[in-house]
Known about the structure:
Number of strands of chain A: 6
Mean pLDDT of chain B: 90
Largest interface: A-B, 68 and 68 residues
Radius of gyration of chain A: 22 Å
Order of helices and strands of chain A: EEHEEHHHHEEHH
Low-confidence stretches of chain B: 1-7
Strand order of the largest sheet of chain A: 4-3-6-5
Low-confidence stretches of chain A: none
Shape of chain A: elongated
Radius of gyration of chain B: 21 Å
Number of domains of chain A: 2
Oligomer: heterodimer
Number of strands of chain B: 7
Distance between the termini of chain B: 22 Å
Bound molecules: zinc ion
Order of helices and strands of chain B: EEEEHEEHHHHEHH
Strand order of the largest sheet of chain B: 6-5-7
Largest sheet of chain A: 4 strands, antiparallel
CATH topology of the largest domain in chain A: Butyryl-CoA Dehydrogenase, subunit A, domain 3
Amino acid sequence: MSNIPYARDQNVCLCHVCSYVCPDGVQTCPRCESPVHVRKPNSQARTWAFLIAGLIFYIPANVLPVMDTTLLGNRSENTIMSGVIEFAGSGSWDIAILIFIASVVVPCIKFLVLGMLLVTCQRRSQWAKRERARLFRFIELIGYWSMLDVLVVALVAALVQFHELSTIEPRLGILFFGLVVVMTMFAAMSFDPRLIWDAEVENVR
Amino acid sequence: MQPLERHSARIICEHCDSLYEAIPLQAGQSAYCLRCGAVLDRGHRLSIEQLLALTVAAAIMLVLANVFPVISISLQGLTNEVTLWGSVQALAQGRITLIALVVGLAIILAPALQIALLFWVLLHARRGEIAPGFKACMRALEHLRPWSMLEVCLLGILVAIVKLAGMLDVHAGTGLWAMAMLMVLILLIAGKDIRRLWEELGVGHS
Ligand SMILES: [Zn+2]
Ligand SMILES: [Zn+2]
């Protein structure tokens, strides 16, 4: 498989915005005028920064309540996990599993996979390059589905506004949860999957 | 057809930097990278005219999805309904307002801008012209794509319906059907496929 030439060996590089094959050494794409880099600048440091910011926000996102329900005078606060448990308890296993996947499994997979990719790339690991490349495309694809819980809280809070009878209000936890999603999206965008393959050759710049 | 020399006859895989000679693809065909397995290129299923027609349809659906409520509920004779904008407003409270901006971008602003920009570039592309501000429009479309989250919004509406159905009377609103159609239309028109315009219009080097 090593017979396929690398673009940088042929002195060209890719414009990420318009797919143009740019000559080496240009600062901006000759076709669409976007900035062009051989590799995303400071990819590893930026990915680490966004990933760690996401991890830090993930703590208040789970500890703080995401919404506050007042039903016929009874007030209760829900965190993400207690919402999942409530669904499961009321027999809606499908919805409970759906929210659990979107709010817990997807962000955790993103943290683990991006962390693993960063460590293996720093070590210039040759291990399972094709599978790691596939994992990266997978987390790019699933990342934004974590927004699900934020949207559900927004819709429910907008709907259930019956003054003294029953109200639902969003709480601070949902802000942190939304920020986790945004941070992990930035982290995935900052990571350059070409770093996985750069381990095959020495001193790529 | 565009002159061949304008066509960049090479493709670089964005996931592993492999360089390939581009081959013309039929509708429905895809080219995959041999090194990393990523999609390199897809054959175009739709003509420019068809894309423009779908963009107009998407604009209509966008208006309907935003004007009509997506869910309505009733409790002891009282009724309430929510529009997309209403759900964004529900988050715009004090300390958490920032998340309202993210949600507003994801479910209203990004899709609306995508449709407006696509309409502008496709309207001119249909006559073989390069729209004024073409480069800026195409760059904006690329940067908006990851932030447009209509699929997630649609699933969120369905989850909210199931969630509330346990304690209240819940009805799907007209906006929900418009939203579902809008989601499919955006998937068809706003993908990476639109990059073909660079080559089909022969946008040259500055
Ligand atoms: Zn470009
Ligand atoms: Zn590749």
